[in-house]
Amino acid sequence: MTGIKGVRRDKTTMKKGQKAHFIGIGGIGISALARLAAYEGYIVSGSDIEHTPLIAKLVEEGVKVNIPHSARAITDQDMVIHSAIIKKDNEEIVEAKRRGIPTLCRKEALKCFLADREVFSVAGAHGKSTTTAILSVILESSALIGAESKSFGSNARFTKGKTLVFEADESDGSFLCSNPSVAIVTNAEPEHMEYYGYDLDRFHGAYMEFLSLAKTRVINAEDEFLSAYKDEAIRLYPSEDIKNIRFTLKEGEPFTSFDLKNYGEFYVWGFGAHIALDASLAILAANLRLPIDTIRQRLRGYRGIKKRFDVVRRTDKLVVIDDYGHHPTEIEATLQSALRYKELLGLKSVTAIWQPHKYSRTLHNIDRFERCFNGVDRLIILPVWAAGETPCEIDFASIFKNYNLTLAPDYQSAKTNCDLSSGLTIGFGAGDLTYQIRSVCAYD
């Protein structure tokens, strides 16, 4: 079977001992793929622009990582794989092509590495990392996740057997390359529209194609788009199927309990109706392979994922949470959980620190961003994390004037100039805010 750019998708030319080089290896998605390559017997190397904790872990695992990018990193590799953000004129890509080394973007490489797997592929604008992590814990399977699961301390895990749970990304259309045997869709809210040319039909068409690739489909049937899906699927109707949602603390840790259909009660780590929804989709997908009682027991082993309602510091009077939420729907849902958590802990205030992610996303959703922080006692806004976009002016002071607002250059400055010594502080963003928070908390 012929694959892409000279790389065959059978294993005759993809053998143990071959050399695979990953450009942008510090990215959460491509690093998981690099770990899969290493597990399958490839000699893995990589490069990135700077050292990060994730890269440090890869080095500990035996991966040679070159910092920064350099044409000298390209020698005798059998294939070169790069993340979506790497430009065609990157010196390593240029050198690989000069040497005639097959060069693939990450989504093209997925077709090679997932070709012989039974893939439970989880897609959706929101909740896909959580759903993927929960499902991997229940199935006790291999997993590639766009976040670090606290249940096994990595964004990748490998077990015996062909089953693999995969977080499928719509941002660059790569979910269409994930070889789904089971397709799970949490929602299809428009997101990453710049990739789809702001064409809603093209965006929804990609989801339709993703669903059509799978033998079995599990969907949130109350999503506006998915509610009109006509083909055969296992459907979750959250307002009807999920009942008696309750929030409890166990040794200060947040848990949600709920009843699902006629299957009885389940407990899952985390707070919120959205957590119950994500867990329910994972339960329905897992039920294709496992009995409900086994699922119920294994679900209790889930312990959250890094950067998703991630409690990084907790004392009697202070809680600091790091969250990846960077879309108003995600922020709104997570804030509701934070407000409930504050009440149960007996804290008096909630401060939200927001690092907007991408100028395009911020401007496209600015009206919803202006509303999604309702309920906080203080809002601190940091500079936009551009993610490679050209900067433009956004008048945050005027747009968010109805809040108790502070504009700060970074988390340390916010902490210095505002009293964050008590209450609940929660940071939102997909940029470097997570490292800022963790660095400061480590020395407090």
Determine the number of helices (DSSP H or I, runs of at least 4 residues): 15
Instruction: Estimate the mean pLDDT confidence.
Output: 93
Structural class: alpha/beta
Count of structural domains: 3
CATH C-level of the largest domain: Alpha Beta
Number of E-state strands: 21
Q: Any idea what the shape is?
A: globular
Map the helices and strands.
Elements lengths: L18 E5 L4 H12 L3 E5 L5 H8 L3 E3 L12 E4 L8 H8 L4 E3 H8 L4 E6 L4 H12 L2 E8 L4 E4 L5 E5 L12 E6 L14 H14 L2 E5 L13 E3 L1 H4 E9 L2 E8 L4 E5 L3 H14 L5 H8 L10 E5 L3 E6 L4 H18 L4 E5 L4 H6 L1 H7 L5 E4 L14 H4 L5 E3 L3 H7 L5 E6 L4 H11 L1
Parallel strand pairs: 1-2, 1-4, 2-3, 4-5, 6-9, 6-10, 7-9, 10-11, 11-12, 17-21, 18-19, 18-21, 19-20
Antiparallel strand pairs: 7-8, 13-14, 14-15, 16-17
Description:
The protein has 444 residues and is an alpha/beta fold. It has three domains: 19-105, 3-Layer(aba) Sandwich (Rossmann fold); 117-299, Mur-like, catalytic domain (UDP-N-acetylmuramoyl-L-alanine:D-glutamate ligase), CATH 3.40.1190; 310-443, Protein-Tyrosine Phosphatase, Chain A, CATH 3.90.190. The protein has 15 helices and 21 strands. The protein has helices spanning 28-39, 53-60, 91-98, 106-113, 128-139, 200-213, 238-241, 273-286, 292-299, 328-345, 359-364, 366-372, 396-399, 411-417, 433-443, and strands at residues 19-23, 43-47, 64-66, 79-82, 103-105, 118-123, 142-149, 154-157, 163-167, 180-185, 216-220, 234-236, 242-250, 253-260, 265-269, 310-314, 318-323, 350-354, 378-381, 405-407, 423-428. It has a seven-stranded mixed sheet, sandwiched between helices. Strand 16 (310-314) and strand 17 form a beta hairpin. The longest helix is centred in the last third of the chain and has 18 residues, at 328-345. The radius of gyration is 22 Å and the shape is globular.
